[in-house]
Write a structure and sequence with these properties.
124 residues; alpha+beta; three-stranded antiparallel sheet; 4 helices; 3 strands; extended
């Protein structure tokens, strides 16, 4: 499904960008730096996690929809560079899945500011 760029094939048929990890969550490498360009790219683990979550949510069950539109070539080039995804279809699918699965944590966190009960005992 995905063509991400360079060295080893991903479970979905794509390739991961070469380079060393720069950011990690536990043992999952979220973003890598491309060895050639130095750009940050999405890791196979993040791509797979997003696509698996989209699949489990039923967002990928039927692929009969088609999307079309005019987009800046610079936007596409930068998005491909930042994610490491090579195929247009995979890039669109990943971007849409990322937006569709957004949990709005930052917004919710900001809204809860100052709402913790002053009587709450935190243990320190």
């Amino acid at each position: 499904m995905a063509k991400i760029s360079a060295s080893k094939p991903a479970a979905r048929g794509g390739k991961l960008a070469a380079g060393r990890p720069v950011i990690g969550v536990g043992s999952m490498k979220v973003v890598r730096r491309d060895a050639k360009s130095g750009d940050l790219v999405v890791s196979k683990a993040r791509f797979e996690a997003v696509m698996q979550a989209a699949e489990q949510s039923g967002l990928l069950s039927e692929k009969s929809g088609r999307i079309g539109g005019r987009v800046s070539p610079a936007l596409i080039k930068q998005a491909k560079r930042r994610t490491g995804i090579e195929a247009d279809t995979d890039l669109i699918e990943f971007a849409l899945a990322t937006v569709a699965l957004e949990d709005n944590f930052a917004e919710t966190f900001k809204e809860s500011r100052g709402k913790v009960d002053a009587e709450l005992k935190l243990g320190f």
